Each structure stands twice: as structure tokens, then as C-alpha cells.
Amino acid sequence: MEKIINDFTINIATANGTGSQSANLILLQSLFDMGVPVSGKNLFPSNISGLPTWYIVRLSDKGYQAPGDRTHIQVLVNPATWDEDLAALEPGSVVIWNSDTKKKTVEREDIISYPIPMTSMARKINTKLAKLVTNIIYVGVLAELLGIDQACLESAVAKQFKGKATAVELNTTALGLGRDYCKENLTKADPYAVEAREIETPKFFFEGNEAAALGSIYGGIQLLAWYPITPSSSMCEGIISYIPRLRTDDEGNATVAVIQAEDELAAAGMVLGAGWAGGRGLTATSGPGISLMQEFIGLAYFAEIPSVFWDVVRVGPSTGLPTRTQQSDIAMLYEGSHGDTQHIVLLPGTVEECFEFGWRAFDYSERFQTPVFGMSDLDLGMNRWACGGFTYPDKPMDRGKVVREKDVFEAFETFGRYLDVDGDGIPYRTLPGSGMDPILYRGTGHNPMGVYSEKPEDYYNLMQRLRKKIDNARDELPAPIIREAEACEVGIVFLGSMENSIQEIDDILEETGLQVSQCRIRALPAHSEVEAFIRRHEVSIVLEINRDGQLYGILRRELPNDLVTKVHSVAYSDGMPPRARIYAERILAKLEEVKK
């Protein structure tokens, strides 16, 4: 039997609230510490403890991070989904199952079966904690079957339960029981194995939300106003956890104010208050929260108040699928609130970019005096990703056009809060307490001096200036990541966490003889290089994780007329992280359609 090394997918089916997440992260960390390219996807329920949860671990020497097309090794612990999980397996798959589960067995003859009395083994260690210990048993079994290094396992346990000696001892014992049972009672009949790889560049595991939180700390956040909502809460919790270590004064007092608001609208209002006062305020939420914040988003745009919003996108509309992933808020962020609006949206596709855009968002917001959105998603935000390090700020904070000195203020021949002195669409502002009047922000129609006005020419000129200001930001925002193939007629345009599936998509297409160039958009309004990329290719296909092709629609509205017919859409969403083969097949189908 030929071995299959570092190229398979494990699906672990458990119940929410049973401690399986700790066990799964220990498995993931152990493989990572061996140098094996690995990714983990946590598919958890949106309501109560006890409901089904799955954890997908994919090993891939090629570095593929999408969930994969099939399950090679299935761990069955949850009777609620037992039959469905078993029925979904292809012939030849491996099943590791809890033989103590009542009224459940594995009777398929076309699979490789490893029955393990997980519950009774767990009870030998600790009767009260048997439900939790059961999960570590299957990690021990997997470790023995696949050849996972014991030292890496023990190190992962120590990391997971840092400072909790009793928990470390309990889980290490359970791992040993699982390994010993496998040695003494099972004969390996499957081809799957793990081999350590040399770690050329040191990396570490990090979640996107935690990276954005740390980036915000380095960006000088002064106010965090938030209302909890999945999947953004861990970003706010991350900011809070970093404050004692990184944001205190000499006397140990926190230099970041944290307020859990009564709702999302209130949180948005607090962020605007910070921006009005010259502080750096942030709130993090998801689509439903952004919907509730629309009134304040419009005020921030029209009154030109610096403010930062992070949207960690989940599946909508309405409550949708709160614990599944999507890229469905693009249009809402870019054109949020009523009336004519246009916003800066940063689109990180990696953990490194979550950190970088975490601090850059504040600079852009103050430089352009406008709301800035960071758009991540549940997959990027709440899962752990291999990270090679962060790009830290290397220049002073960009506070934009703020008049702080009296002599500078008096040098203005005429000072108007909304007067475009430099012709770039960005006015100068003063701050409360500076002794320079007026301190004025107006959310109703106004002239360049900030005086209320309903004159048609004042409103027209104001709206043209706001458009000019945002349009001028286009090439100052992060440029796209372009990977160009020589003499290539087809370009793929995408954004965000699709980055983690794009290489596998590219390889699948290459197997059919199709070479494509890649352009990952990292901000809206789109950089001029995006238009140039589309111009260089006969056909450009926009990939995104939603139903309606929202990015595609934005590009078609903004591209010159001669390029519109070159752009086509492949949009797909089912709540799962993007599986490469689905998108590759749809790209090929779209190209056939274009040819006709």
C-alpha cells in the first residue's frame, strides 16, 4: 500500500460545548509545529451548546488551505450527525469512531473502520470530565495512526492550557491512552501518514480578528465602543486583552477607553464622538450591526468625521447563518447610508494584512476625514492561519489636516471648516479645546464655511468635493496584488479571503490547459492598477463569495465603457469557505459561455 503523505483532509464531528475545540486546536498546532502545511476550519452552530459542530483539518504540502473536495478521515463522536456524516464518505475513507456511543455503529464494508471505546477510556481518567477527555482520546489515536511527533503534541497541550498544570497533565495522560490503545488493539489499514517538513521561515498561528485587534492597538486606538456579535466579538476582546500589556501609562492606567454600548447604533455614535474630539475611535461588528449603524455612517461621511468600522462578515440577509462565512457586505460598506455616499473599504486577504490594515485604517480615516471600513469575514477572522510576521508602522501617525497652533490658524486668510484650500477635496479641521473657533461639524446642508445652506449650488459643490476626496484616495490606498502570467488572455479578479483558495483554483485550471493571471483587490475605491490589469486581458472574471456579484457590479459601474464587456462574474456562496474546485468549474463554464 503506497503511503499518502501530508495530503488529506480530516473531518471531526462532535457536539458544541464538549471541549472539542481545545482538542482540535492541539491537533492543528502539533501538525503546524512539525512543519506540515495545515489549515483548520471550525464549523460551529449559531445557537446553543450541544448542537453539531465540525472541525476540518487539511494537510497539504502544496499549501492549499481551502476545505478540500472530500473527507479522507472521518472522526465520529456526535450521534446527532452520525448517519449523515457516514453516508457522505467516499469508498476507501477512514472512520475513527466512538464505539461506546449508544445505538450507533459503522457497518459500511467499503470503508476502513477503527472503533475506539473513547468514553469508557475517558472515564478511567476522570469520571466527571469524561465528556471533555473523550476528545483528547481521538487526538491520541490520530497521532499514533498518522505518526504525529509526541514532543510536538505535548508542546501543543502546554500551549493550549498554559499555566494550568492540572489540565496539562490530564490531557497528556488522555493522549497517551489513545496512542496506547491504537498500538495494542488496531492494525493500520489506511495509507495516510504525516511527515515533518523543514521549517525554512519561522511562522506562527494567528487568527485574523486577533491580528486586526493588535493592528488597531499599534494604530493608536483611543476608544473601543462595541456591542457583541458573532463573528466580530473576538476582535474587540482581543483589543481589550492587549490593553494591559501594550496601552497603559507609567502609572498602569489604561490609555484606551472601552465601552460596551447598549446597541450597535450607540457604539457608532460613540466612535463619531471620538473622531469629533480628535481621538481615534473604532467599533467592530458584522452585517446586522452595520445595518443598524447606517444613520451615523451617513453623518460621518457628510460631516467628515474620522471613524473606523470593522465588519467581520457572516452570511445574510437578516440573521442568516450567523456562524458561516460570506463576502456579502461589499456594496453596503462601499455605498453605506442613504443618499449619495462612497466610502473607503480595506479588504485584507491574509492575517498579515488584517494587522497592517488595522493600523492603516486610522491613518486613512484622519487623512481623508471620512469613515473607513475594514472588511474581513468569519473564515479569515475566526480561524487560525500561518503567519510570517507583521508590517509595523514605521512613520508617525498620519493625523491629516489638523490645525493645532494658533499662529497657523491665524495665517488662514479665511478659515472655513469645509473650505477646500488645497484643491484636493480635503478641508482643514480644528479640535475642541484648542482655543480656535469654530469647532464645527454639520450633518445638514452647508456651505464651505460650515454655515447651514439649502442653496442648490452649495449642495452640488459639496457633493462634488466629497466625491473628489474619495476618488483621490484611490491610488493612496493599498495597491492590488497582481500575479501575471505571460501571454495570458484571462485574468481573475478577487478579494479578501479568496486569497487562501486562489492557488488551488489556479492549479486546477492549469490541469485543463488554462493559464490565468491574478489580481487581488485590497481596497475600494479600486486602485488604477485594477483597471490597467483588466485592460491587459481579453476576459476578466470577478470571483467573490456571495450570490449577486457585488464587486463585479461596482467595477462595471466605475470602469470605462470600453472595458465593461470584458468583465464577467463568477459569484457563489453556500456558507462554507470557498472550495477551489467549485470556483474552477464555474470559471471554465463562464469562459465557455463567453465564447458563445
Task: Write a structural description.
The protein has 596 residues and is of the alpha/beta class. The chain has 4 domains: 4-193, Pyruvate-ferredoxin Oxidoreductase, domain 3, CATH 3.40.920.10; 206-387, Rossmann fold (3-Layer(aba) Sandwich); 406-475, no CATH class; 481-595, Rossmann fold, CATH 3.40.50. Strands 10, 11, 12, 13, 14, 15, 16 and 21 form an 8-stranded mixed β-sheet that branches. Helix 9 packs parallel to helix 11. The chain is globular and about 90 Å long. The model has no long low-confidence stretch (mean pLDDT 95).
Uncertain segments of ≥5 residues (pLDDT<50)? none
Query: Given the helix and strand composition, which structural class is it?
Result: alpha/beta
The second-level CATH architecture of the largest domain is 3-Layer(aba) Sandwich
Counted beta strands: 23
**What is the oligomer described by this structure?**
single chain
The number of distinct structural domains comes to 4
Helical fraction: 25-40%
CATH class of the largest domain equals Alpha Beta
Give a nutshell description of this structure.
With 596 residues, the protein is of the alpha/beta class.
Salient structural properties:
596 residues, alpha/beta, Pyruvate-ferredoxin Oxidoreductase, domain 3, 4 domains
Write the layout of secondary structure elements.
Elements: E1 4-5, E2 7-15, H1 20-33, E3 38-43, E4 52-60, E5 73-76, H2 82-87, E6 94-98, E7 112-116, H3 118-125, H4 130-146, H5 150-160, H6 165-185, E8 192-193, E9 204-207, H7 208-218, E10 223-226, H8 233-246, E11 257-260, H9 264-276, E12 281-285, H10 287-292, H11 294-303, E13 307-315, E14 321-325, H12 330-334, E15 344-346, H13 351-368, E16 371-377, H14 378-382, E17 384-387, H15 406-411, H16 456-472, E18 481-483, E19 490-495, H17 499-511, E20 516-521, E21 523-524, H18 528-535, E22 539-544, H19 550-558, H20 561-564, E23 567-571, H21 580-595
Parallel strand pairs: 1-8, 2-5, 5-6, 6-7, 10-11, 10-12, 12-13, 13-16, 15-16, 19-20, 19-22, 22-23
Antiparallel strand pairs: 2-4, 3-4, 9-17, 13-14, 15-21, 18-20
